[in-house]
## 1
Amino acid sequence: MKSWKEECGVFGIWNHPEAARLACLGLYSMQHRGQESAGIVTLKEGEHIHHKGIGLVSDVFREADLARLGGQAAIGHVRYSTTGQNLLTNAQPLTADLYHWPIALAHNGNIVNHDMLRSDLKERGSIFQGTNDTEILLHLLSQHRSSDLVAALTDSLVKLEGAYSLVIMSNDKMIAIRDPWGFRPLVIGRKKIDETTWARVVASETCAFDLIGAQFEREIEPGEMFWVDEKGEHSKIFSHRERRAHCIFEHIYFSRPDSIVFGESVYATRKQFGRQLARETSVEADLVIPVPDSGLPASIGYSQESGIPFELGIIKNQYVGRTFIQPTQAIRDFGVKIKLNPQTAVLKDKKVIVIDDSLVRGTTSRKIVSLIRQAGAKEVHMRIASPPTVGPCYYGVDTPQKSQLIASKYSVEEIGQYVGADTLGYLSIEGLFQVMQSNSKTITKSKYCAACFDGKYPTDLFGLDEGDAK
Amino acid sequence: MKSWKEECGVFGIWNHPEAARLACLGLYSMQHRGQESAGIVTLKEGEHIHHKGIGLVSDVFREADLARLGGQAAIGHVRYSTTGQNLLTNAQPLTADLYHWPIALAHNGNIVNHDMLRSDLKERGSIFQGTNDTEILLHLLSQHRSSDLVAALTDSLVKLEGAYSLVIMSNDKMIAIRDPWGFRPLVIGRKKIDETTWARVVASETCAFDLIGAQFEREIEPGEMFWVDEKGEHSKIFSHRERRAHCIFEHIYFSRPDSIVFGESVYATRKQFGRQLARETSVEADLVIPVPDSGLPASIGYSQESGIPFELGIIKNQYVGRTFIQPTQAIRDFGVKIKLNPQTAVLKDKKVIVIDDSLVRGTTSRKIVSLIRQAGAKEVHMRIASPPTVGPCYYGVDTPQKSQLIASKYSVEEIGQYVGADTLGYLSIEGLFQVMQSNSKTITKSKYCAACFDGKYPTDLFGLDEGDAK
Amino acid sequence: MKSWKEECGVFGIWNHPEAARLACLGLYSMQHRGQESAGIVTLKEGEHIHHKGIGLVSDVFREADLARLGGQAAIGHVRYSTTGQNLLTNAQPLTADLYHWPIALAHNGNIVNHDMLRSDLKERGSIFQGTNDTEILLHLLSQHRSSDLVAALTDSLVKLEGAYSLVIMSNDKMIAIRDPWGFRPLVIGRKKIDETTWARVVASETCAFDLIGAQFEREIEPGEMFWVDEKGEHSKIFSHRERRAHCIFEHIYFSRPDSIVFGESVYATRKQFGRQLARETSVEADLVIPVPDSGLPASIGYSQESGIPFELGIIKNQYVGRTFIQPTQAIRDFGVKIKLNPQTAVLKDKKVIVIDDSLVRGTTSRKIVSLIRQAGAKEVHMRIASPPTVGPCYYGVDTPQKSQLIASKYSVEEIGQYVGADTLGYLSIEGLFQVMQSNSKTITKSKYCAACFDGKYPTDLFGLDEGDAK
Amino acid sequence: MKSWKEECGVFGIWNHPEAARLACLGLYSMQHRGQESAGIVTLKEGEHIHHKGIGLVSDVFREADLARLGGQAAIGHVRYSTTGQNLLTNAQPLTADLYHWPIALAHNGNIVNHDMLRSDLKERGSIFQGTNDTEILLHLLSQHRSSDLVAALTDSLVKLEGAYSLVIMSNDKMIAIRDPWGFRPLVIGRKKIDETTWARVVASETCAFDLIGAQFEREIEPGEMFWVDEKGEHSKIFSHRERRAHCIFEHIYFSRPDSIVFGESVYATRKQFGRQLARETSVEADLVIPVPDSGLPASIGYSQESGIPFELGIIKNQYVGRTFIQPTQAIRDFGVKIKLNPQTAVLKDKKVIVIDDSLVRGTTSRKIVSLIRQAGAKEVHMRIASPPTVGPCYYGVDTPQKSQLIASKYSVEEIGQYVGADTLGYLSIEGLFQVMQSNSKTITKSKYCAACFDGKYPTDLFGLDEGDAK
């Protein structure tokens, strides 16, 4: 069984009288990073209080829960899980009452050598509660003899390989850690309380700061451990790597468009992807339409660069529930139709460019093209604001196996035929990095992990890719 | 106590083996017309089966419910209710086992003389179950001696004044009725079963037909009663009025942009409102941004007409739950912020035109303007793609009392100061009707009810406006 | 379709600051009379507030419900229903906002001519909401022109035939009514508030008075209408019949043993049945054991009369849930075993007399006898503390059809063989009435309805027995 | 904070195609031993499947759960917990996927040296999930290097002091263990499948065997480890103590009357306690009545010995829910009244002996005496079928602190005055042991722990009694 891991969002706040409430709001603004479970742990008079649940943040946290959580510091987590079982056991933050301190831990990423580490720890007598790779760090800390948490972390982290943006809380400090590659985002800011005091906040994305009225300061550096305690603030680099491996997909799809990620506006980057796509794959057409909502910023960029009018040719149903009835007598293309309705009034007899952020399996794109044609479009030109996806992610993103990635097997032309478009165009890898570079003079290609596009995984994969090799 | 009524959506299907399922999907696509309760009644071997519940369509109907409903014909209803009590009692379709036939009834609109009719009926011994104005028609039918439903309806409808788009089912026919003014939309179409057979469908909006793969044919005419039974299809005009009173607000806000309403594409109309608004209220600016999602089509039109670039300056949180925690220590403008986040990366140092579909109380607009300024905009020009709202609606729309409509008391300039915009501009009433006319040569100003803008109510109000007069 | 009706319990309280709460407790103590639904209606400043729900009283009423109910007067109802559908619609008290007054109505009994009355009312235009026979009275009142509720009731009640113990509340009075036969019990009492004031209470059984600390005064007389309003208390006999028809089964099984019913202690009566049974059906044995809990009082009486020791030979599982898993690989006599466990330590090698209150179908008795034998009993003598059940009840009790009553087809000897007992003995009808007479000098055989034993139904049955005749 | 532990019931079955279902029924019959949570773990093709939940067995296990559990072997647990928090985390069976085998563990009892062991294990790096003393054994096994579970258990059990009846399952065996004192019951039996095959079953009480149709064979011996695997059955004595310490309270109150516990019928023992009580505390009276249901067997014995008639003077409400509303305006003695109703018809003007199994705080007895007097009794003589309770239990029973045990502070005469009885009588300690001895020639006083009556705790208490000493 392959171990597919998940996207997550983390949050932390230190020294605020409404810590639990603000943590809740911070998680709420990062709901797009994980919808399966949510949790918060607070620090209240030296003790940890926690509340976790299955579902959306707004379902999991009620006023009574927040009142019980209280506290002057809090860390939180939202999680998207692919495994049906043990949802609550694996929900984060993970907590344990270790010999020296209580500890709570929220993790975004994936430890690629977790199988090996887990087996070692079990042989030494550790009892694992869940199947979560994050639990390994708890046991490494528990096995460590030192009463100095920062020392124990420093020793433990060197054993981990992979992606980890962590927010950790003990009985007297909050710690933010980013792996040496900097795969996943982690930002730091502050929220003013009064003229002389402020709270320290950390989050996966800056949109969390916007909602709670905090100011973004900087990213936690790759390989940095940053902590706050009664004595003040501290930072150290626990590991150094020459290159970075920021996840390029955060800019393509994961992050909210209103976040600043790896130093760049996501919305601006996506629009630039659209502009670059227009330059690379121009075609004569009457309209540019987005696949809502993922293709929206790129299609605005495409329209502005090409001068072809931007229209809402596909309307999204605002009330799509999680599960819903299936028609036993198939309505054609039902699965997509329940969410998206291409409108004849806009599309009839038109040459249409339809833009999405990425194309993974191709099944949904195929249905969208079909629906646009049923609405009367004369020509359908599909444009994808990222390169062909050829490899799975092992750094904390839920992706299909390689064999299910259509671009790992077929040419762009073949994919175009499969989805039924008159033409299909992707953004080139060169174009992608050109956008990232032109955005900021200081960022070079070597700062990003684009393994899903170019297959160059920055770390050893410890056999995680074996299933795909077959 | 004033009797504020609600928006609703109705649906009906006759002669289809998956009647319940398609009714469910039809309601699902019209969820925007009512989110409080949903219900379906089917006709199964001459008997009515019903299922109603509080909540969204996807919550109310489970597979087991649909299996139980079965049937070859079905009518359904979604409802938005403002009164907390007796939600389920008032949920529609209403049903009754009358002496001559079982009857089920789904209603969109509001009977303005319902208080008087109800009092009469009670004096004659009728027992009312809910506070719903629709129940009146049930009792009028029950009191009627005839076993001919069409005759009983014809006699009963003449007693009703106001707005009613009705779908009714007995043990042997389905009937669609629209009031003589044509206040609310009601369309008719057909869904193909095989080469020679098709099912008859009616719905409030054409988007319901799109989802189930049915074809739109025409509107039910104002004053028309249309019915299907074993013998075939029938239509008669039960009442005639010289003018129409189509609700202009369906085009401004209520209907889904991908629907065809009163013969016009809603999306196209809204874009035209935006273009006309640009012509009437031009101002120098760097960007046009919509208030998501209501201002989206108009802002595309405004941008196209003015040539000022369209941008997504405000990002909407996709996971807004119905109820959520409130910060005890106020985060500034929290109520709007939880839904909408203006992004600094787009707005900083820019002259911004922000567009919404309408402005009712002004409180939300004021917060939005404030948030845009906090994001660094240099100038904020608010544009409203409809005229000032000066009167409540008594024809089936939930609106605030007159005293709470800011435009009923203050000038445009004063409202602009209240919301804090550098300039505020509304679409003119003349501009509004010009758009409606230019859209279609056949439609004239006199075909629309715009009482919320001009105070000209087409019917007697039977004292419903007394509370407002004070 | 035969219309089988249900057992119920009714309660009313007038002029008490905790009316809702005491009504809730009163219903709780009468939970044995109906477990499917419960409801309370209060009178609060001239208006009715109601709360009804499916389930036990302790599930249906929460503190928040009681707070909302409030009021100085309240009526309530518990109901056992055999029909799965529309449970909540049929739950009582029924309420309606009639032209002259709001009305709430709680009913125990069954109107035997309800089909005829319902058809008449529907033809005259009344719309029925449920299938409840009680709703007929609501419509009779609604059709009545008079604004005088007592007059309207007097006119309406004469049209009803059958069993009805009613508690009714309008906006200014509470009314208790018992049918002219006095089929079902209805008692009246008072609860002291302070030295000079007291509240008036009515209930199906006196155990309701015990729990709330009220004093039992007397029965509502057959054919009596008793009411309280601002002016005080009033009583009138609206109909007179020469004989009574008190339900003998209230003493045999329905009522709680600690209630006083039709003027007699239920516990004392049941013990007397046991004594009489011992006199009539003596047999040599080592032990007398009850079927818990229904046979308990009679077996104490039997033991005392016969001198044979009383033992708990069958232990009842205290945690029997409503529904529970079934073994797919049959455990022998599982259905009874899950509730009752005969113990070998008591029964082994003993001659055992086992006593139950009644024997209806015989299937359960057969399993009990079998389990007692498995536990090692040498002889099993079954004794039933009532006569053979030969007829269904049409006066508000849920009984099987005649064809399923084993005593309607087979002799005592044959039934004894079927249940597998060494001997089987019933109480004789003569013995039954002898006990009732000896209990109280004033009560004679003609005061009771024992139609289930002797087939002598006091009223016309309006065809309700047709299904049984076949 | 003192660590009060709980009563529990355990069950195990090996080699039966309906293992999960029978485990469920076994737990159901032992519901009286714990109502807070229930759980089952099955062994299915070498893997453990588990299902645990808060609530009664009939609530926790649905058909779908049993289908998922499947398996040929199963162990289960019901638990009564006094701590509100972490109910589900502490629910048993506990499970862990250890290095050598998966393990599941169900425990009845209490480890008195658990604080010391827990601290040691945490210092060595073990992470505890709950506050359950049972978790200690999991960690001792996990820390053990051997792959031989029986060896690992033998080494681990010697570290535990206190009460433990355990049922354990790995991937290839089921193990039943009883501590060397034999505090808690644990019995073994077999259930026939066909002529040549049978399943092995273990349970806390024999009533579990009765329900599933299994035969009781013998007790697991104190200090015995019994296990079944593919090779057959095995037993070894892992520890030997000269005396026994069977819990005498199992006979007085805990166990079901239809169980055989420590070789004796519980019902017979309780009746004997009643007979002995009659001999020791005779008084002239008209009636003997039990406090339902706990005083029932003893009162039958008392009546038989004394010749004073047995009556049901107090009727129990069969529908007492777990939580229920409280009257804001106090009804006198409400807390007891909601459960128990003394009936005037039986008690008025009578001299009454009322019998209960034990008297702990005295508050309930006081209310019962008061209610009996309100019902008109002339004299009330309370008799308790066990000696005065002077010490808490530390061996797996939830008891109040010593200071709350009324007999630890007051004389029998003083307690009699407090409860308001005319006379109060307890069973003597000598009488208690005389009954146990006369029951069986082989059982002597030294075989029982009666520390709650005589303060002689068989083990070191490791400071658990410190709170009480103050």
## 2
Amino acid sequence: MLMLTVAASSSLLAEDGYELWMRYRLLPKSKRVAISQIVCPNPTDRHLKEAHSELKTGLESMLGYSVKVGDKLTKQDGLVIGTALSNEFIAGLNVDLRPFNDEAFVYLPTTINGKRVHVITGQDQLGVLYGAFWFLRQLQSGKPLPNKRYYSAPRYKLRLLNHWDNLNRSVERGYAGQSIWDWHKLPDYVDPRIIDYARANASIGINGTVLTNVNANAMVLRADYIQKTKAVADTLRPYGIKVYLTARFSAPIELGGLKTADPLDPQVQQWWKDKVAEIYREIHDFGGFVVKANSEGQPGPQNYGRSHAEGANMIADALALEGGILMWRAFVYDDKTPVDRAAQAYNEFKPLDGKFRSNVIVQVKNGPIDFQPREPFSPLFGALDKTPALMEVQVTKEYLGFATHLAYLGTMWQEALASPTRLRGKEKVLDTLTGIAGVSNIGSDRNWCGSHFDQANWYALGRLAWEPTLGATKVADEWARLTFGTAVAKPVVSMMIRSREAVVDYTGPLGLTHLMATGHHYGPGPWVDNLGRADWNPVYFHRGDRDGIGFDRVGAGTLKQYAPGWREIWGKPETAPENLLLWFHHVPWSYRLLSGKTVWEEMVARYTHGVSEVATMRAEWAKLKGKIDASRHLQISEFLKIQEKEAKWWRDASIPYWQSLNGLPLPKGFDVPEHSLDYYKSIFHPYAPGNTHTG
Amino acid sequence: MLMLTVAASSSLLAEDGYELWMRYRLLPKSKRVAISQIVCPNPTDRHLKEAHSELKTGLESMLGYSVKVGDKLTKQDGLVIGTALSNEFIAGLNVDLRPFNDEAFVYLPTTINGKRVHVITGQDQLGVLYGAFWFLRQLQSGKPLPNKRYYSAPRYKLRLLNHWDNLNRSVERGYAGQSIWDWHKLPDYVDPRIIDYARANASIGINGTVLTNVNANAMVLRADYIQKTKAVADTLRPYGIKVYLTARFSAPIELGGLKTADPLDPQVQQWWKDKVAEIYREIHDFGGFVVKANSEGQPGPQNYGRSHAEGANMIADALALEGGILMWRAFVYDDKTPVDRAAQAYNEFKPLDGKFRSNVIVQVKNGPIDFQPREPFSPLFGALDKTPALMEVQVTKEYLGFATHLAYLGTMWQEALASPTRLRGKEKVLDTLTGIAGVSNIGSDRNWCGSHFDQANWYALGRLAWEPTLGATKVADEWARLTFGTAVAKPVVSMMIRSREAVVDYTGPLGLTHLMATGHHYGPGPWVDNLGRADWNPVYFHRGDRDGIGFDRVGAGTLKQYAPGWREIWGKPETAPENLLLWFHHVPWSYRLLSGKTVWEEMVARYTHGVSEVATMRAEWAKLKGKIDASRHLQISEFLKIQEKEAKWWRDASIPYWQSLNGLPLPKGFDVPEHSLDYYKSIFHPYAPGNTHTG
């Protein structure tokens, strides 16, 4: 271990994950493409500076020789970059870019003045930057360059990170250290790390970031914090990343000294107009706000008897004057215990469809509850006909084992994105969206995400927001090649692809959900029944008793929120997919599944399988020793060991709890849980990370 | 900036401060010492493995060739390391080590079997490890090796870091990120960074570390946390570093379920004995506890009508059975507002002198109040005749500008250590001590301490604890050579040496103290007068009014706590040193100093001088551009800019406040403060770092 941390071994030192998927290691000779020069007239233009710098650094590092940047095309095999406006050589090619949006890029192998060239261009220089990162990625991952024109355009306009970062640098549900925004030192000192954050995001097409927690603090709108935000915005702008903030609905009271935040009050409206104007004076391309209102204690328009639409439109009107947008979260539940928590977002927002201003986007979590390892898609995606929707996914693994568990989320997001919202129509969730926002897993840890594999989830967010039909496996393969090298990509991808289903199995199989310990959500707590309101308790969600288990969402009426085809399929236990059986139905423990096993037997088998899947991942990883640098290999080995221990903890705590309800024996052939139920119930972890309410 | 952060430039990447003073850069040819091999029989022995690994890595890096480790002496210019017991070649030399303690080391250039060798030895292998680090330091700093026997032994047995780190990884008064102890992942995952922490500490002779905050949490004594602590102890042990914890006095109630923590209660006594035995079963060389009792809300023996001695002795008895020690803090103040806060530690502890068990050490802050930029030494150092004392200094800069201000503390600690406790006798503070404990400035930031220059304070703690008469300038010179290179050491040292006095000047000249803003202590707050108790308020400490300023500690009786010689000198304004004038005396604003200036004129001059000193440091630093790697140079430049801005903030806020009391005009020739007093009073920073009570 010593060697890894000592100065001399800088090549090993570097493998601490800081470089993410932009490692640019020297390519094997057979993979080196001849690039003689970078031709970039007007090299200081917006985004072009970043594009040619990155290309120069990356190419020199991968090819092993010096690559000059200049404005003359003098050699064979030059790399010509820019837009038609900035680059006369490209202008001469007359590339037709009209069908593409202004973030698209085109790669073109061709000849100019008799010289073979690679061309990267786009309508806008931002496209050139995206193309530069694509080009480097192709080389890095050992893939051949296309031999004809290749173009790529993002599917969505909004490809966002949501940081749940507080002004004291704690991160709600963050497992990777502190917030990368060091508000105390801003604006005078901007950590150079923020440039690397921008590079990483631009490399995967992310074009916006919400700096602050949805549980918002009005202070961030104070004049000195606007200066701090401006310093971040100025640093991110060259990489095409816009800055957004969360707006606390009661800010006019807390910051403005008003007596109310009522959206129909003219003083309140004026306060928001003035505040928005103040922000845009400093940050001309400010993106807008995210608002969490009337949810989990946050203030909102309902405090004044107004609707979500009235609240949203008031702030949206202020933003519209400056070109900003408002993302209004649909994750709401009021202060009465509902028949079904899963039904609330729809119940609140469906009646408001069509009542929002055109610059309001409703931000909807992928599933109807809360980022669980498996949920069906939210019914709002099929129900908002007149209101644009943004899908919110959680990159940070609040419910999937924090940083130490390997759980690749690409498969989960693909499942949501590919869901048909109407079974007989063609529309899929992805067709209803204007974008994707991912709750960031980024922090001050050296490896950014708390674990090396969690970098894959950041990567997948960007790639799937750019191209949602790319497929989780393809994304995993790209990432594995860039991060660990092409030689080991296959086994790494195999681990990644099975990883999320393993978590589903060891935490909540067959559509069970929300069974974790209170507050921090670390470890199992299916027995919890004493929280402040019924729908915070796991027992509310699983409805287990002596006779059966599962939430009857047919009886609760929730199924009606989905389109008719879904009502038929999900409405009967026999036709519902088994992986959502207990989400939609309460069935007897003796209910038989297709396998011939009872629900109880299948649950025990799944819990056990989840644990054994982690053991398999450990074994697969162990085989890669020596094929991956020792430092990352060791850390991942140790994390997988923790994951196996904690998977077993979930299994061994859950099984005796269900037995305490159903009185059934352990099916034959399965290991008896290691400890008693009382033992597992007594486990108490007050300082588990990510819980900023108590931390 | 881009180049600094990009993968390819690994040599630049490395200069992010992570390597501390152990950079081991290739030496210029003229400075390379010929070392042909490392001769270390029994290379896996305790501490020897770490010694030869570090030597191999360091030498190879500095000399530019491979250096083998073996058990045969085969070449000229070998480096022979070990103890007489572990190394036959050294046994043959018959080095007389009896006069030295078992942490000392000896370096010896000699011949063995006709071959020129360098020998590093000691009575114990820990001495060999210390010698190895000394040897590497000599080479790194471009100094010649001694041409005859050289030995070095630590002056104090206890050379400790105190981490004020909480179990949720927040750090009280920490300005360098989160705690390096990741309790959540321990014991299963130990960050390799902890090995580098151990290396850094061993390199400067630190031999113990208190992992947890003095504002203690009983939870750290729970069985699972003992396993976590054991994992840290196991990692630090090879480097000669013992682990200590803070013990919450009420732990028998909170953890043990007892009804009382009364030290005379047999059940309480038994609980501590059992708990200590449990710890030692897991960590055989556990160091012991630090206790903060009956101070700032912490529970203690006085809750049960018992004395500090009764409380301390009860826990000390439990530790004595296992060989542990108890460090009992003298930083106490009870719940009544005292005539003089500065008098309290003495008032409480002087009467208890001689009543403590032999394994109790009273831990006394260097000054009588609280780590202010300047205080006289604590009177307890001259008063505890029968009780061992440990000096507690604050490495983290709670009162000296957090991480962004450059303030080298070696000069401050030297001032305390060199203070004669009796003016006519010879005894100095340093003669009364058993050790030094420094409140850590270490965190998860890449550069460990939040700023590059703050690394010097960690370094100085170790070096002065080893050799307290070394002198702050010598220590600064060592550090500057190791950290920035020999070529720039002179100007760097010049900045360091003037830096602390600059802070004194711009925050509280002439012996003023405790004038900072509430809670986080960021920025000026001399006007604060509304806190929960009188002696929390700056106005309590400065006693300024229309007529004069300063705390009359003669009238308060506090001066009597010092020896007679001091009473005479400090007792009169004419003989008291001007830099402590207002600490001991309340004088009229018109009081004339030696310079001929009035106190008011001198105060304004000092505030102004403090700011100009920072401007001078900035100018000196600017001249080093190009002589220091760009990355560190830039960060330090930006921090110095912040320091100048904040020094001016202190000056411009303080001067109008004093004018609001004394009604005097600004002396001629001085700049008018930039804003009004009301402006400065309105500044409000709720999220300044380090304040874990509110953070």
